[in-house]
Specification:
Aminopeptidase, binds zinc ion, metallocarboxypeptidase activity, CarboxyPept-like_regulatory, Immunoglobulin-like, eight-stranded mixed sheet, signal, single chain, glycoprotein
Length: about 500
């Protein structure tokens, strides 16, 4: 009996071990299986990171509304400023399912590689990454597994295409009926200030950047470029992804392509224009730069191992771009309290805001000289010159602390400070201090960062596509070792 108990215990331990430590299979998972995997990742991630599984709402289904699960991963302390939020969304079109599995593997990779791969550790020490593998679980349930076709693309109960379901800045639609999924994304973005985002799709092979919408002032009403004031940044983001992907930038395209995507990137309106896209909404309403990443000619890629190997590095490099450009806080010069402001980079006709609570702002910019224009009711307008530098190994954000002077006071009290740093402690602010873990102390001489041995690529390297020839394969033996420990 005692022996039986011991055997049972072993079997139970083995089962638990498999549940927590087994590697994710390269196969498609149902919504419920996906939920269980995310729960498992939340637990395994907590061993070395801060992982949090949360839902931004429910799907539209009236029979079985499914939670819209997000897993947040970071190693940064809570309640500190200076940590950008990045989001990755998959399965917006329910029948484009590769991205949802890809994102599950990306989560596993981030957890496994933290403390072993320098760039992964750096990214998680300095970033909050929010991953939602499926924003359209109802559509996925309704889809087959076809490479082509439209079944399952929309939210089934509402017949709504989520990527046509957001407020369009250029073409307001007062009759827009929104799905619960789109509303959930909008509420999520009101609550969390995201800097960088990607929506993963399939059915083409291209990195698509805004605008998708038709130019309201243009001569042509369709299929001509409509570029944002931050087109240099968007092209850089798209090239970062395409050039580090082994196939995307090769111009091979897909059989169904009606246009050639030079370098594997395209402006949305130039490909085909439409209103109500999520990418345009992110940029126009929240100052968040989002790409639509089309990752496979087949909407249900049969070989998920290939999909993962092709996209692992691009996903990581893409997330790191949140650390390119300028950040800072805007404070009242007298009270040192945060001020909600309207911001703009000179010569770029695109306004963005800062965080109401912390006063923080972010803008991804390429290396160069810029002027930040700051406006707030009741304060003198402020113009701040700053420089964004390129870097080789680890990213550096230009960090500004801007004090605005109340317009009832003399302007001479306005002060600013501007430095280029990797996040420093700032003792002059009244918001929570910028405290960061000592990132270098987490690494050992034996760090396995062969995957990313090139470090953080410079702009010229990303543009030249030098990354394409770099390939790697991480193999973790933790599960085997742990199993041997358990049965020994
Ligand atoms: Zn799609």
């Amino acid at each position: 009996m005692r022996l039986l108990f011991n055997k049972s215990s072993l079997i139970l331990m083995f089962g638990l071990f498999l549940e927590v430590f087994s590697k994710l299979e390269f196969e498609y998972h149902s919504n419920k299986e996906m939920e269980n995997i995310l729960r498992r990742f939340e637990v395994s991630g907590k061993q070395k990171l801060k992982t949090k599984l949360y839902s931004i709402g429910y799907s539209s289904s009236t029979d079985e509304p499914f939670p819209l699960w997000v897993l947040e991963l970071t190693a940064a302390p809570e309640n500190v400023t200076g940590i950008p939020n990045v989001k990755l969304l998959g399965n917006m079109h329910g029948n484009e399912a590769g991205g949802r599995e890809l994102l599950l593997h990306f989560i596993e990779h981030l957890i496994d590689s933290y403390g072993k791969v320098k760039l992964v550790s750096w990214l998680l020490n300095n970033t909050r990454i929010h991953i939602i593998p499926s924003i359209n679980p109802d559509g996925f349930s309704n889809a087959g597994n076809s490479c082509n076709g439209m079944k399952g693309r929309e939210v089934p109960t509402k017949k709504i295409d989520l990527n046509r379901n957001f407020p369009d800045f250029f073409h307001p639609n007062p009759d827009l009926v929104q799905a619960k999924e789109s509303k959930a994304v909008m509420k999520w973005m009101e609550e969390t200030k995201f800097i960088l985002s990607a929506a993963l799709h399939e059915g083409a092979m291209v990195a698509n950047y805004p605008y998708d919408s038709i130019n309201p002032n243009g001569d042509n009403d369709d299929d001509s470029e409509y570029l944002t004031p931050d087109d240099d940044v968007f092209k850089h983001l798209a090239r970062t992804y395409a050039n580090s992907h082994p196939v995307m930038s090769t111009n091979k395209g897909c059989p169904s392509d009606v246009k050639e995507f030079k370098g594997g990137i395209t402006n949305g309106a130039d490909w085909y224009s439409f209103d109500g896209g999520m990418g345009d909404y992110n940029y126009n309403y929240h100052g968040c730069m989002e790409l639509t990443l089309e990752l496979s000619c087949c909407k249900f890629p049969p070989n998920l191992t290939n999909l993962w190997n092709e996209n692992k590095k691009p996903l990581l490099l893409y997330c790191l771009q949140a650390h390119r450009g300028v950040t800072g806080v805007i404070l009242d010069s007298e009270t040192k309290k945060p001020i909600k402001t309207k911001l703009k980079i000179s010569d770029r006709e695109a306004y963005f805001g800062n965080d109401r609570k912390s006063g923080e702002f972010w803008r991804i910019l390429l290396p160069g000289q810029y002027v930040l224009e700051v406006e707030a009711p009741g304060y003198y307008a402020h113009f701040e010159n700053f420089t964004v530098e390129d870097f080789k190994k680890f990213p550096k954000l230009t960090n500004l602390t801007i004090f605005l002077t109340n317009s009832s006071l003399p302007t001479t009290t306005t002060t600013t400070s501007s430095t280029t740093v990797i996040h420093t402690t700032n003792t002059t602010t009244s918001v929570s201090a910028l405290i960061f873990p000592n990132i270098t102390s987490r690494f050992t001489d034996n760090d396995d960062d062969k995957d990313y041995e090139y470090g953080f690529p410079s702009i010229s390297e990303l543009t030249s596509g030098f990354l394409k020839n770099s390939c790697a394969n991480l193999a973790l033996l933790l599960s085997v070792i742990s199993f041997l420990v358990v049965i020994s």
